Amino acid sequence: MKIISLDSSSVHDWAEFLPEEMITEMMRPESDIPLFAAGVTFLREPQGAITWEEKEDEWLLRSIYIAPQSRRLGLGSALVSYVSEQMVDKDCEHLSVSYDPQEERKTLTPFLRNCGFAVEPYELSLGVTKLEDVTASLRKYHDFQGDRDCRPLHLLTQNERELCGQWLYEKTGESISRYLGKRPESFVLLRDRAVAGIMLFGEHSGAISLDYCWISPDAKAGFLAMATEAVHSLNEQYPEKTKIEMVLSTDEAQKLYSHLLGEKREQIMVCKGRFSPWGEEMSGI
Q1: What is the value of pTM for the model shown?
Q2: Least trusted range by pLDDT, from 15-19, 73-77, 168-172
Q3: d(Cα 247, Cα 245) in Å, to the nearest integer?
Q4: pLDDT band at 263 (very low <50, low <70, confident <90, very high)
Q5: Cα–Cα 20 to 30 A to 95, which of 85, 243, 251, 273?
Q6: Cα separations in angstroms, 278 against 1, 59, 113
Q7: What pairs with residue 6 in β-bridges?
Q8: Is residue 35 within 8 Å of residue 25, measured between CB atoms?
């Protein structure tokens, strides 16, 4: 077993163990996101990797993956120990992680706890609808005029993209690079060289996910502009029966969802964990 620090020149050797958007971020020379990665070998072959983000207040565990045939050999624990050593060297107190404990991630909770993480499950409300139902709901706003300040992310200028990227990172800690693809399109409302609203879409197991939605209090009409543009784009790319999912994490989001769609909701589980290299007792995850 050997742990190897990865950079832009070596990360592609571990591509099968890393999310594509993280590889893209590490390869961007102008990236200002402090993203780091390490790979682990067994019998001199790459078998897994871990990525983390070094934020000022605490670090974020972004991904960890070990090849199925090499699990239960201590490779994952060795990667966490490597990050723990980096935390001690840089005097970082906490490493946090958030994940949906579904499919392969079901095994993450016992693994993380064995590594010293305090992990707690949280139940959230999930809105579930179909593209055709969202389209029908927005038709009642047929007199609504679009907003020329609303555009898809991939059509922004380089300066606008950097502005939006910095704003998103400060708001959520997420990189904008994962949303720059054209399927599905994500949209932003820019006014006076500032982000007034944003809708970020992803795709998971054939379903569309609304990953993040925000609108400035003084630009609420822009919500309909973004929603109309987004639904038009989605209808060009996906069948009308495609499922759309959105986490309703605030009372405002739940009220808006019920007002527009009136659809039933499901409950989902999200796990949040926190780790200290000094093994102290933690609370308030």
Answers
A1: 0.66
A2: 168-172
A3: 7
A4: low
A5: 251
A6: 24, 15, 15
A7: 37
A8: yes
